[in-house]
Design a protein that fits this description.
This protein has 23 helices and eleven strands. With 560 residues, the protein is of the alpha/beta class. The strands form two sheets. Strands 1, 2, 3, 4, 5, 6, 7 and 8 form an eight-stranded mixed beta sheet that branches.
Length: 560
């Protein structure tokens, strides 16, 4: 009988131990894995290799044109999605560097926001901004937390084409804009109606009304971008500035981009000069600047959309906030493709509405240059200095000459007059009516103005005594001077005569009064258009055949 307390020795077995990955590579798998595990691993390796072979056969069959992707996927038992992914890889035979190309670069929500922005740009008077669309989409993609190489490649090669096919209304909007540019009357009607609706929705239409005192508005702005040719030299600050570039858009050669901002009150806001610099800006150029123009730089001196956005968000908007001039309206030329989705959204949030101008080429076709000169005012003003002043002008000399030229040659009164002539401030659709529209009116507008002038002159002659009329005629001949009490009446008298001469009704004037004084004085009056600059100053130039000693006498009178 055995002792119950006697312990039977048990055969000792190997203890399991945890091993690191690097230890597995060093040791033989048979030392720590069973035969069943080894067989399972071998089977998995064989299955993986078989799948790889089948995938390669399917890819080769599709590339040779023997069958479609669907047929190849069924024939070789390969998932169709896997086959599509491997087909898009640069090296399908190696099957390395797997890229997730199934996910689009931008989500549906991102593309929908871009489409709504394009609709807003078209409704604001701009052309379809293709370049800004690509830049805005790229910015959205790069702001995503995890952007793969496949997404960047797919965006560069396919995104724009797929976006335009998906959002077909973009093409419809572009066709509508092209149709509106076919004739001058359609262009004007389309632009004014579009801007009217765009401003009424947010309640900003009042900004373009002149019901203010004084009748100007510093909340209505315009930005003009002008490019100057530059001949580079060493050191770079001694590079010379040449003539103004007439062609718009980006140019391959080096140039100097100048951004100037004006408002409807005739004031000039801080601008920007972009220099063609790759390195740091020299101190000689920095010293030549003041608060009128800030400094920017790019490789070729072009005004990129990134630089333009930086100017709006970091210079213009803080200035408007400081001066308490928000909300405000900013006009740009409709073909300026520098307003990105991000800029448009941030500016609108701050209270700055960006609008595109009517086509200046259309206004030029209908021979109304006075309506559009202000939008090229910097380009026209730069032609006023002499050739000697503009010859061999270096980069560090350019800012001082530009600032002095704009201040001396372009006055505040001229800018205000330009805004009114452009019919943007005040917003006047009727004044800018083109000649074809006027012909549809049954009654000639010139006849209407002539009749008004005749009625006003007849009432004035019946009111004034004959002695007063004789004095006014003597003043016109340069034989007398008006009294201070008669200055207003005399100015009105000259204004009516001017209207009647402009309307070519001098032969009707004799019917108003049979007096020899009025008849002799109005038949040979000629008024120079350049002398009459506005409603305040009146200058009359007379030529009289009977009295040659009084020819070319100019009289200027100011309203009291």
């Amino acid at each position: 009988m055995t002792d119950p307390l006697e312990l039977i020795p048990i055969k000792q077995e190997k203890r399991l131990r945890l091993m690191k990955i690097q230890d597995l590579k060093r040791e033989n798998p048979s030392t720590y894995m069973s035969s069943e595990d080894l067989n399972t691993i071998d089977n998995l390796k064989n299955i993986r290799q078989e799948k790889m072979k089948n995938t390669m056969h399917a890819i080769k069959a599709v590339k040779r044109g023997e069958m479609s992707q669907r047929q190849a996927a069924m024939r070789f038992s390969v998932p169709r999605s896997t086959l599509q992914e491997k087909m898009l890889m640069k090296k399908p035979d190696e099957l390395k560097h797997y890229m997730d190309v199934n996910r689009p670069p931008l989500t549906y929500e991102d593309e929908r926001e871009l489409f709504r922005w394009i609709q807003s740009m078209a409704g604001s008077g701009f052309d379809i901004p293709h370049k800004s669309l690509v830049d805005s989409a790229r910015t959205i993609m790069m702001e995503k937390p995890k952007t793969t190489l496949a997404e960047r490649v797919a965006f560069k090669n396919f995104w724009m084409e797929k976006f335009l096919k998906k959002w077909t209304k973009v093409g419809i909007l572009e066709d509508e804009i092209k149709c509106s540019k076919e004739s001058a009357d359609l262009s004007i009607e389309h632009w004014f109606s579009t801007i009217e609706i765009t401003l009424q929705l947010p309640g900003l239409r009042w900004l373009l009304d002149e019901g203010q005192t004084p009748k100007t508005n510093s909340r209505v702005l315009y930005i003009e971008i002008t490019n100057f040719d530059v001949q580079l030299a060493e050191p770079v600050e001694f590079s010379t500035v040449k003539n103004v570039r007439e062609s718009s858009g980006l140019n391959p050669g080096p140039n100097l981009s100048v951004l100037s901002t004006i408002d409807a009150s005739g004031s000039r806001l801080p601008g920007l000069i972009v220099y063609p610099l790759k390195d740091s800006i020299p101190q000689s150029i920095i010293k030549g600047h003041n608060r009128d123009f800030s400094i920017g730089k790019s490789d070729n001196g072009n005004m990129s959309s990134k630089i333009f956005s930086g100017y709006i968000l970091n210079i213009l908007l803080p200035h408007l906030v400081e001066k308490r001039k928000l909300p405000a309206i900013l006009f740009l030329k409709r073909d300026v493709d520098k307003v990105s989705f991000q800029l448009y959204k941030k500016a609108a949030k701050e209270g700055l509405t960006i609008l595109g101008l009517y086509s200046i080429e259309t206004i030029a076709k209908i021979k109304q240059y006075e309506f559009s000169w202000i939008f090229d005012s910097m380009k026209d003003t730069w032609k006023l200095p002499t050739d000697k002043e503009r010859t061999n002008l270096t980069l560090f000399q350019f800012p001082s000459l530009l600032i002095s030229t704009l201040k001396q040659k372009l006055t505040q009164e001229q800018l205000v007059h330009g805004w009114r002539s452009s019919c943007i401030f005040p917003f006047d659709h009727e004044t800018i009516k083109i000649p074809t529209v006027k012909k549809e009116v049954k009654e000639n507008p010139k006849n209407i103005e002539a009749e008004k002038a005749i009625i006003a002159m007849s009432s004035l002659l019946s009111f004034l005594p004959e002695t007063k009329i004789e004095i006014f005629e003597a003043i016109l001949r340069g034989k007398a001077k008006p009294n201070k009490s008669d200055e207003t009446m005399f100015a009105y008298f000259c204004h009516l005569k001017q209207q009647m001469v402009d309307s070519q009704v001098s032969n009707i004037i004799s019917c108003l009064d049979q007096s020899s004084v009025l008849k002799a004085s109005t038949e040979n009056i000629k008024i120079e258009p350049g002398l009459l600059e506005d409603e305040i100053g009146i200058a009359v130039k007379m030529e009289q055949e009977e009295e040659p000693e009084y020819v070319d006498v100019k009289v200027e009178t100011i309203f009291s």
